[in-house]
Amino acid sequence: MHTGGEPIRIVTGGYPPIPKGTILEKRAWVRDNLDHLRRMLMFEPRGHYDMYGALLVEPDLPGADIAVLFMHNEGYSTMCGHAVIALGRYAVDQGLVAIREPLTTVNIECPCGMVAASVEVKDGKSGAVSFESVPAFLFEAGRSVCLERYGSIIFDIAYGGAFYALADCRQFGLEFGRDRARDFVDAASALTEKVKLEIPLFHPDHDDLAFLYGSILTDGGDGSSQPTRNVCVFAEAEVDRSPTGSGVTARVAAMHAKCELGLGEPRTFESIVGSLFTGSVARTTKAGAYDAVIARVGGRAFYSGKAEYWREEGDELGRGFLVR
Question: Any bridge partners for residue 267, and if so which?
C-alpha cells in the first residue's frame, strides 16, 4: 500500500514465530534475531533506500485488534502514522475487525503504545482513515545549534510517537518548490546529527522511546489558511513522501504548547510530493510531567500491489544492499 505516496510493505506471512512478550520486547527480539529479513525486504533488489515496512505480530495489550512492528532502512521505529492509516484500511478489508458503518475503530498496538484508527466505511468499502495517537508533547522549544554549513539554526523538539527536531527550512536558505529534495535531505540530516550529539532526550514511559528519529523542515506556516508544507527526513536519511503522521502529531503538539493551535482547530499539512494530512488537537492530557495532547491525524491510503519474495541459494546480493 501507500499513504500519500509513502510506501508501506505489509508482511502477511513467511516470518518465523516471534516469542511472546511486550511489543517493545518483540521489537528488540526481531531486531536482534531476524534483522536479515528486514534487510531482504527493505533493501535492493526487492526494495529501495526509502522503502518502509510493517510486520504484524501477536497483540499483547488488552483491547488491541492488531499489533505491528515498523521497519525501514535503519531499523525499527516506534510509531508510524502513514502505516497506521494504511493498516486501518487493511484490518477492515481483511476482516480483522467487526465492520461498523460509517466508522470502524481499529485498535493498533504500536511500540509507542495503543493507537486508535477510525476507518470510514460505506457499503462495506473502506475509505479515509484518521487516528488518535499516544500523548504527544513539546520537549523543548527554541533550542539552537550551530551547523558548519548553515550557521545558527533555531528549532523545537517534539514527540508524536517518536521524537523530531522541527525547523523552518528558510533558515537553511531552502524553499519548497524551488530547491531539490537532496538539499532538504542534507540540511535535515545535518540538524539530526548535531541534535543527537548535543541534546539528550527523555521519555517518561520507556528509555527505548528516547531517541531522535529525524528532523522535519517546514515552510514556517501554520496550516490554517492554506496547507503548511513540510518534509520529514528520518532514520538513515530516509525521505517521507507523505506529510508524516507521527510528524504531524509532533507539530500539532508543539503548536498547541506554544499557543498557536487551539483545541479542535483543524490544520492541513502538505508533503514534499503534494499529498495532504489533516491534524488537530482532540484533547489535552499528560505524559509524565509533560503537558501533552492527543492529536487526531487523517489521510488516505491506497493499495498498490501484492508480491512474494525469496532468496535463492548462492545469491549474496539477494541478502540486500543499498545504493544511493
Answer: 279
Same domain, yes or no: 267 and 144: yes
pTM over 0.90: yes
Q: Are 216 and 232 in contact (CB under 8 A)?
A: yes
Provide the domain limits for residue 112: 2-132
Q: CATH number of the domain at 215, please.
A: 3.10.310.10
Domain annotation covers residue 143? yes
Mean pLDDT of the chain: 97
80 catalytic, yes or no?
yes
Contacts of 302-305 with C-beta under 8 Å, sequence gap 24+, read 302/1, 302/2, 302/3, 303/1, 304/1, 304/2, 304/7
Is there a single domain that holds both residue 48 and residue 191?
no
Cα separation values, 201 from 159, 278, 286, 294, Å: 10, 28, 17, 20
CA 121 vs. chain centroid, Å, equals 24
Catalytic residue among 80, 110, 112, 232: 80
DSSP label of 319:
G
The answer to the question of residue 155 being in a domain is yes
**Interval 81-131: pLDDT, tens:** 999 999 999 999 999 999 999 999 999 999 999 999 999 999 999 999 999
